[in-house]
Amino acid sequence: MSDFPVFPSGFEFGAATSAYQIEGATKEDGRGPSIWDTFSRRSGAVSDGSSGETACGHYHRHREDVALLAELGVSHYRFSVAWPRIQPSGSGPVNTRGLDFYARLVDDLLEAGVKPVLTLYHWDLPQPLEDAGGWRSRDTAERFAEYTALVAARLGDRVPRWITLNEPWCSAFLGYGNGEHAPGASEGTPALAAAHHLLVGHGLAMGALRAAGVQEAGIALNLDQVDPATPDPADVAAALRAETQRNLMWTDPLLKGCYAAAEADTWGELIERQDFRRDGDLALASAPMDFLGLNYYTPSTVRAAPWREPDPARRTAMDNRFEGVARPGVRHTAMGWPVVPDALRRLLTSLGDRYGALLPPLHITENGSAEHDAPAADGTVHDAERIAYLESHLRAASKALAEGVDLRGYTAWSLLDNFEWAHGYTKRFGLVHVDYETEARTPKDSYHWYKAAIAASRNRAG
Ligand code: FCB
């Protein structure tokens, strides 16, 4: 038992999922279409041609999944609400049958002694809102606040922790910048408008959550630990541009109420044409949060690159003069992501160095690995690589705590194997294996390891 990483008493261990990745039942109980339903149908958008139409069947099996969480011994479960179940067309009155599902899930979690942690937006925008401009349009931010108020009015008294947006960087830059995610718009510059409107939407939603009197509210960001490939000043400057696009673009407005000083260098002249930015927006976006959620998987190493488009008039917001380089000498997961646990410790400590007293308490809201695991002949799943990944990252988190970081909890991604966005069902992140034919759930070795690690931490903390 003494082998497990050490955490203070009260430290929270959890597991996470998101609606579109696990629920299935995309046409049931009045759910409307989302941008991921539409995007998945586009040829070549999802590597195995699949969609979340059936996924893990969680919509009908949520009791079984709550039982798996209870058995795991987690203190909390992070899930997301599908906006198209609540407002099938993205605005207007609540679809009660959709909201009833989450009310049942929350009741079941509470009964099982597992704290619900609710994400309002994990990428499944109602399609009618996308048809009206999506996050390029300020109107979507206003609609998001209305939707938030509807969910909080029903669940605000029973859900103690709320997350407005999951990884807005992905929504903006993968959704509208390079088109890798829904809605699949590879438009470049509109990603900046989307990013700004996501920040405004977050701020408005924080207001709605405060009005509903929820206990804790914050956001989950996929911050990147970026290192320059060499000490050459050109590479160091490239790393700052990458850091601006990935991190400062979000953390400066959220925590300081201003855009990052390095913006102009990152986006060049484009940044002067951002007429969608209105006075007061960043005061909204910087509404105090009770915690900052961090999704961490892998770091980046970058070096300087030339502009892809030499003509400034034709450049887009995706042209930032940096490029990623490989990280040899470390293991890579099935996603091809380098495993560098100490980068998590550095990321956690660097936030305090940069923001000091402005930084709220931190939660790791996602961390985990996709591995090439499959059931053995007897049905068991031996995923030693995932155990090593979880253990090394928990150790890094525990070190950060010892170095003074105010880290309150750790959430493993994911409870279940699920629909991994543009990778479809080809990448498995679960602590629990899912057979997509039968929807049978089988806890992997990593589930049993995590359960023992949680129990050991509780026992030691007394
Ligand atoms: C994150 C997403 C999550 C999952 C993991 C692997 O970017 O928030 O839904 O896909 O990556």
Low-confidence region ranges: none
> Major β-sheet, in short?
8 strands, parallel, barrel
Order of helices and strands: EHHHEHHEHHEHHEEHHHEEEHEHEEEH
Helicity, in percent? 40-55%
CATH superfamily: Glycosidases
- Spatial arrangement of strands, main beta sheet: 1-2-3-4-5-7-10-11
Class based on secondary structure composition and strand pairing: alpha/beta
Q: How far apart are the termini? A: 14 Å
| Relative strand content | 5-15%
Form type: globular
- On the 0 to 100 scale, the average pLDDT is 97
Heteromolecules bound:
beta-D-fucopyranose
Radius of gyration: 21 Å
Q: Can you tell me the CATH class?
A: Alpha Beta
How many separate structural domains?
1
What does this structure look like?
This protein is of the alpha/beta class. It has a single domain, classed as TIM Barrel (Alpha-Beta Barrel). The protein is built from 15 helices and 13 strands. The two termini are about 15 Å apart. The structure holds beta-D-fucopyranose (FCB). Beta-D-fucopyranose binds next to loops.
Strand and helix layout:
Layout: E1 12-16, H1 19-22, H2 35-41, H3 58-72, E2 76-80, H4 83-86, H5 96-111, E3 115-121, H6 127-131, H7 138-155, E4 161-166, H8 168-177, H9 190-212, E5 216-221, E6 226-228, H10 233-256, H11 263-267, H12 281-285, E7 291-295, E8 300-304, E9 322-324, H13 341-355, E10 362-366, H14 384-402, E11 407-413, E12 432-434, E13 441-443, H15 445-461
Helix pairs in contact: 3-5, 7-9, 8-9, 13-14, 14-15
